[in-house]
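Re: Re: token formats

Sure, here are both.
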Amino acid sequence: MARTPDWRVPTDHRDKLGESPQWNSATGELFWIDFYGPTIHRISPDGKRSDWTLSKFTSIGSVVPCADGRLVIGMDNGLYFFDPRNGAVAPFADPNQARPDLPYNDAKVDRHGNYWIGNFDATESAPRGILYVLNRRGEWRIGDSGFIVCNGPTFSPQGDVLYFSDSLGRQSLAYDLDPGSGRLTRRRVFQKYSEADGVPDGCCVDTEGCIWIAMYDGGKVIRLSPEGERLDTLLLPARNITSCCLGGPDLRTLFVTSGRAADDGEAEGGALFATEVDVPGLPELLFRPV
């Protein structure tokens, strides 16, 4: 049954398209982005917000914390390291190999330390999107392909299942993930969505192995069991809900990002939301480049 929890808004900032919330359990920091800024946001443990706008790029699709204090950022034309301490930007990799109109999108580190990132067709019309996996040296290969827009991914608590949002296909996929080789097998449809549900976007997993999925143009996040049963639906005061993560000191705070509606008539569109949930998340692994 759908319900509206007690949402709070940790910052008065509004993004054009907020995305990619990532909680760093080692430092107690929350990172997220404004896709069109392109801007990186951080809320530090004392509650203060910092912002970095990367004006030489067109868009930013994701941010992933590293163990050395840097971030891996997925930009329109490549993957880069960004250092919040001095603003330095350095190239990391470009699995797209400079192919045009394939900006990078959602990214996350799996339970084995590999970095996963998808891209999308800039026209949102052709199935050119690819889900890549990169090791700590930046060596990459294709996990799966043939999507218009890649979103997610997230991983089961044991790290043996990868969940992925095929957004314009209106479906969530699941794969077996081999911890040794990092290869995906047994692709299957985990959940199909109706037009009323919205479009599946970013997601995260809790300690029970349940998956929280943000529903773009659906005004909600939903919680699914590992078997795909819909367990909970949280309604939000914004329509374009983009992604979510579990953070806070006890990993029981659900942070949710959003974008402004096309008509810009929503007061809360583009806000970062937060509420408490019963089941905690898992500490996300930090990327450890070599």
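Second one below.
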Amino acid sequence: MNLKALRAEAQELQNEIVKWRRDLHQIPELGLDLPETSAYVERTLKELGIPVKTGLAKSGVVGLIAGCEPGPTFALRADMDALPIQEETGLAFASRHPGRMHACGHDTHTAMLLGAAKLLQAHCAELKGNVKLIFQPAEEGPGGAEPMIRDGVLADPPVEAILGMHIGTIFKEVPAGVIGVGYGPLMASLDRFYIKVIGKGGHGAMPETTVDPVAITGTLIGALQQLVSREQKPTHPLVLTIGRIQGGSAYNVIPSFVELEGTVRATREDERQSIARRMEAVVAGITQGLRASYEFKYDFGYPPLVTDEGVTRHVEETARELFGPEGVMTLSEPTMGGEDMAFFLERVPGTFIFLGGANPAKGIVRAHHSSTFDVDEAVFWRGSAALAASALTWLDKNHKQRHASRR
């Protein structure tokens, strides 16, 4: 495959990718219920002559590009959902749905995968196998990857490798248009916990007649943080954040209970499981030792996102050939954000790459999940090129390796 020619073809698609993105940006939808977005993707794929399956995880859309020769299947995945945020960008193509906004770039992911689909369909005669196009709902919650997997998205034909991509400022060191790749643990788990410290309420002037859950909570907070500072290997990232503490209703009354909610982020599954167990042990020990009781819930959400070395190296080499050495960065540290692409990577070798989308020179610097979030549209063709080229070259390389093994 001539990647220079593919790069030029992707550049020619730039205006069309921008149009797709702007259309999608105006119709943000939430969770698993994306009727307008799914219909738009389905219609566009059919216009490109690509067979489509719909209804996976309610709103998921899957296209399949079959090559001229039988072979394995490489999957490309994009998320489609938006966030419950009122848009304040002032863009001419701003959200038409009040209280909803594409504030994380999923509209661009969908548009860039449509661009890759058009490139791949134009080169289907060169494919040594298949490319499966996965358009996923509910990445922002409650999670769309796992239900799509249950609905068979990785089967018929079975997926042997997968690639996803995220745009924006998650890794701020990645400039606009540059591809960031990472090896091993790259994003964290996304877990939630709830703690209720149950004491005995009473008058603030007579603490001896109470079991004060506020004082116990103060002790508990420090002890929980010691799980990170004193039980976790310092070179392995781990975050325990308490985001909500609520208890009491009057300045001179000791309440009967205090509630805490928060999140844990870990980059290794064994450490994730360990801290969940240790948290409850600490809560039980402190509350019972101080004459209180407790409730504890730990919800395991998205797992850590861990990339496959072989697929990552292939995608990195392909991107360097496409864009030159200056167009690719190797990421040295993970982000503690979560991503349900991790469910796909638990089951299939694959990787997740990051396309720089901020551009200070254009004033495009807002963080993800902001009401003024935007990205530099000039980089879109690069995303489509990276996705399409990675699939084409992986299938070609796999075909050559299998053919050589038969000799």
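The radius of gyration is 24 Å. The chain has a mean pLDDT of 97.
- S.
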